[in-house]
## 1
Amino acid sequence: MKDLPKKVRDCMTKEVLTVRPEDPIRKVWELVEEKKLRRFPVIDGERLVGIVTDRDLRNATASSVVLTEKKYHDFLLDTIKVETIMTPNPRTVSPDTSIREAAKIILNMKVGGLPVVDGDRLVGIITETDLINAFISALAE
């Protein structure tokens, strides 16, 4: 059995797809469908200002009117901005946070991942998938 990585920097995803606060939520829907991802850090320049998830999108468009009126649904997707549905100032970790601590935060907060920041600059994301992949890799013979 190999050693598990010790720090977030050792198993985080460094290539992160992001969105901006002023982007329409249609952009996030398209990323969810195309990339099969569930969460996107929201950045203003390089500074992390929020996170938006597929759940946020579903909640924003889940009224019965939206489900029955396609033109209204399209209007919402093009009009509602990410900043209105994102979670501002999300919980973050640093690249030097231990894997154990990051896993505990994800478990206790019941979230699927955490943005990784250096100061206030986004440098990655650590997800449940990243943690499971590190665990599987450590178990490999």
## 2
Amino acid sequence: MPLKLSLRPGEKFVVNGAVVQNGDRRAALVLQNKASVLREKDIMQPEEADTPAKRVYFPIMLMYLDMMGREKAYAEFATRLSEFMGAIRDASILAECIGVSKEVMAGEYYRALMRCRRLISYEAERLGLGHVDQSLPARGHAG
């Protein structure tokens, strides 16, 4: 099934590891085959992985974008998820963690990233940061 991206002027996105930037007008792209695609709002820079839940998200993102580095990123993911789960007592969030793990094990990295957003929101609420936008900060440049 094709994937249609509607892009804002200047919006960046990554396709199979390549950073692409839209021109000065709105555009729509249609990807006809399977590709690893992340919009700028979903890309996290290493320095932004500054909380336990974000440290779970970051290696999943790397597994999704970098097929060659998946083994190393998986080891980091497994460590970070175990640490996160060890600190959580909320049954529904633990279930989300298990769901994230199942998605990763199935190679469904994008789905795992979207599930991981729930962990980031939960963590932000617990840390007293209030409601957090479901998009990630997109500071700096993509990729």
## 3
Amino acid sequence: MRLRFAPSPTGALHIGGVRTALYNYLLAKKHGGAFILRIEDTDQGRFVPGAEDYIKEALEWFGLAPDEGPGYGGAHGPYRQSERKALYHKYTAQLVENGRAYYAFDTPEELAAQREENPAFKYDAGARMRMKNSLTLAEEEVGRRIKEGEAHVVRLKVPTGETVSFRDQVRGQVSFDSYELDDKVLLKADGMPTYHMANVVDDYLMEITHVIRGEEWLSSTAHHVLLYQALGWEGQMPEFAHLPLILRPDGKGKLSKRDGARFGFPVFPLSWEGKTEEDSFTGMREFGFLPEAALNFLALLGWNPGTEQEIFSREELVAAFSVERINKSGTRFDIDKAKWFNQQYIIKADTDYLLERVRPVIAAHGYEPGDAFLKAFIELMRERAVTLDDFWENGYFFFEEPRAYDEKMVRKRWDPERKGLFDELAGQLHLVNNYTAGSIKAQTEAFIDERGLKFGDVLPILRLGVAGTMKGPAIFEMMELLGREEVDRRLRKAFVQFNELK
């Protein structure tokens, strides 16, 4: 079994493309097959430098490294279509020779005039005989035009009065009447093939057995079937599966690259720096997603395992995946569900694994804590983090003193007349012999008993003094990690400021 992911290097890879790559990868690995990356760069006008490297980096971040492809090796290369032009010319000439394709000399201006006269104009069996092509021109004139270098394209000659059928593994039997189909351009005036020609030739020569792609290509598949027939390759035609759309969170239309900014979440795997702010996007990686969590989320965005299981390792996804359980209808992109997956993975992740991913988040704010401190910090914060950035946002006070104090809670909990009492407690805690959570707690409890206080009188004040907020891990574990001197300094400063706030 051989499957391919064939993106165009025209910019950042949309998350829908990653899902397509994932499903191809899962099916290939389930059957011990090959997952191939092919770069479809025949549209040179839309080529964007750096896009191919972005695609590779995105796949590798998700753990979907190709078995074959540009930079990965393989016996069916080259894997960039721009390096395979001679092959497309060879097979296009074969199609013209056997009468299944023809040369067309219509200029862009002439075609535009046709569309202006008739907005529903389609270059098909009904129109081809009144156009300027090798079906209407004398053979000698066609030869002269080509010899003189006149711009021309090669079009597929769609047969008339036929039904083109194929079985789609998601949608079942699909049929098109040939009168619905236009004579697609196979070879453009610049000598580059269109997607249709290059796609079929490459899939055949690379021995692709299954094609999983987006539903926008469903209608084009009829042309591809005709090309397989015309080239005599019908017996080697791959199985097709067309994926449902990924919809916006509100279910209203396809999720586009602009929707990330509109809804405030990433729709690309990695950040992309475009020429303008409008063409620059934040990625899932930079947003703080773990690749395993994002992959798990994407796998269930259009496919279900038929069980209640939601958390899957990559190996479990490979074992459970089947094309038959891909949904036919579109699936909404639920960012809250994506965050839930990420939170579950953060909670369960190995500490050393998180260490390497949390470290750069903290370093971005100018702090380089040692491994021991950072590991302890991660253990205290992991259940309070939905994304990796939350380790900083929800726990910055482990690295610098509170930016502000929760004034509402200070006014509710603080009594200026008790400042001396709390100064005494701070002094006792500073002198605790073994500065651990257990010892700090024991000393605090003893103080509460001796002074006839309640836990609600004391613990909120300690938490506000240390972190500035009522949120966060257990106060005594926080104090242990921050250390004796830092806690004492913060408490003394806080008690003074509490009086001012009150």
